Amino acid sequence: MSRERDRISTEIMNRVISDRVSIDEAADRVAREYRRFVSREVVQQIVTSLKAEMERSRVLRHAIIDESAYQGSMDIPSSAMNGAQWRQYLDMLRRKNALGVDELSRATEEVCSLLAPPNQRGTRRKGLVMGNVQSGKTRHFSGVIARAVDMGYRFVIVLSGLYNNLREQTQSRLDRDLFVDREFWYHLTSVENNDFDRCGELLSLMGSYSDVRLCAVVKKNKTRLKNLEASLRNVPEEIRRKCPILIIDDEADQGTPNSEKDKKKISAINASLRRIWDLIPSGSYVAYTATPFANVLMDPDDEADLFPSDFVYSLTAGDGYLGAEQVFGLADADAEGPEPAVEGLDLVRIIPAKDSRVLKPPSGKMQRESFDPEPPASLISAIRWFVVASAVRRVQGYAGHSSMLVHTTHYTAPHFAMQGRLLDLVHRMRREVEFHREEGFAPFYESWRKEHERIDAPAGRSAPEWSAIAERLPDVLRNVEVIVDNGISEDRLNYDAERPRTVIVVGGGTLSRGLTLEGLVVSYFTRSSNTYDTLMQMGRWFGYRSGYEDLLRIWVADGLDRDYAFLALVEKDLRDEIRSVEDSEYTPRQVGVKVRCHPGRLEITAAGKMANARLVRLSMSNARQQTFIMDGRPGTTHRNLQTVERLLNGRRPRPLREGNRRWIVRGLETQEIVDFLQNYSFHPDQKIFSDRDLRGATIEWLMKYAQERSWNIILAGNSMPGAMNSLGALPVAGIRVPMLRRTPLRGSTAEKLNFKAIMSSADRLADIEPETYADMPHATDAQRMVIRRRLAGGDGLVMIYPISHRSTNKLKLATRMDMPQGVGEDLLGFSIVYPAVDHSDVEYGDFVSVKPLAADVDVGEPEEDDDWEDEE
Prior knowledge:
The chain is of the alpha/beta class.
């Protein structure tokens, strides 16, 4: 009987993974299939046992893991992660009154539980930790290192970016906070630009009789990585096998992914890292990045590469974090609410186009050498506010660093000319304040008057009087430094000085990633990028600005604010996608994370890093799309009504629920949905459907992966009292469906109606009985994706929305207009939710490209919510 129970248990778990269903649904299917051999009571006992086992083994809240990689692994007790190194690191943080220590403790313990057990020789794991820009990733991986060493890891390698200044800053911080005990830690690298050299003594240091723990902070540079590779290769495999190694790859999306456009070629750094990883028989590789686009687009089936095949862990930003959404808002409607957009804080100032042109260096190298423009008015305004804000902080008792970033170009020569100009400007301001006090103070007072009340001061703190600020201004101006930090400068950014610095930092590439500017108050930024990851990483102003949020200001070139607002939406999409499959049966290889595409010039990441996009595909599984751009002319609307009638031909829709004016037809076949998509007349700007290749790819996906799935069709009528009288009713499939109010964006015409959204995110669950998920979290779209995957039985959903040509902008929204003249009286839009489909058996097939298909997915909520607010 025991053998039979084991067989049933294995079969249930196989169904959970293969069918992508809950353990209860899998057990139900197995019970029906094996009813002659085993009773339901026994199956239920097995389920209870399995759930208890899973509860014991899976305690992670923010991870996607490959369960198969952890089966049979030796458990790592929590006590092993709380040794001397972790306690020392924790004590240091508490002495500094660091915030969020309890959350850090929990998150580092969870990540360490995912590492290869150091006492199990020959075990390796690869993972990804996704953080936020300037959100404390270094603090987190320092904690992971401390715990990992307590667990038994003996060699720690930190890969720290592409630039010397970032490597040196990381080395300095780790030396100060973690690699403290020189008798315990053996330093293979140091701050003084002593990167990794060939180490002949690595053999003895890694030997089983050595008690020291090795540490190295290595720049992702071909020479340094070759030195590391050669040193490891000189150590026999049996010794390497007994010496577990932890690789922390900071800024893992830069340098690490293969950047060759030709998939048959491998870029130099990626090739070096592959060879180094191949030389580590026991250990873990953990990638850290805030912009993991390139990492999730690696080929998941290339075992030699560094795709995070064992786990993906998502860090949660703590209270007070300012990211792209908080600073710039969301470019599109929030997928979790009815509002059309989320506004950012009032701390962004737009640099006039003429000022941006003044600061743009010429393309010729010789011309750049002599490029020396006068600082434009916007830059002078930014510096004045920096001086005022620094004085305010001094009045409030702040004794730390105060920084300003000036980033206008990646070319190095103009940085030094800018440094000279800004030094002259600061000196002139200082003289005017000291010798012409009333006239000299006036511009600073004007800056204070315009800016200081635009953002509320943090709770419990009030703005100081101007007289107190003015008293501090001369001292601030006397201490302002202007330095250049770029690839050739000698005066690099260094905050280890004994006194606090008030510094304006002029730079380019070296300031665009990883480097932390302490006490950053003001940023002046005109440089752009064509890729998501680079542009987001350039935002050094993101992060924790506790205590001076009201003083933070960001000057950006016109258009960059919109780019960053769009990237906030991209980031939200990505995190929602990952959260929707956390703590589920999906493995990192199976997730196929989708990344929203920019409608204009921005690319997701460098073209070479996109070479595998088709391998990690945008899965249509559980995705939703909608026709938010429509041709409203009568000829088109009538043809689309006929297409809907053909879809429902011979079927009688039934009321979905009492009183809600929605009707449902269940059990349609995939071929009928394909015919509907082929016959519906789409507006040419609705690319996801109108583009022949994209629609063809969608149909190919449906026929290949969802052909056996069932579909439900819902006619979505208006449940508001009196709606039929004011908006009319449309006869569809023998039913008079009350029409919906949907008003288009301003500028729409009958030929092109842009509604931005016609679907509520709650509609994703419209065909599922609410009582079945009442006890499950369902407030966010990510949570609703989980519910649909678990409770919809693999069904797809199409919702038909009859939209009234009488719709008026009754809320008088500035972005909306009344329905224009000439719109057909039978206007119909629709949304589609694709079936949740398992891809474990099709990972090697022809995948749908990530790049083109994300453009029109999940644009948001309808502007006016009176048609669906009572459906929740």
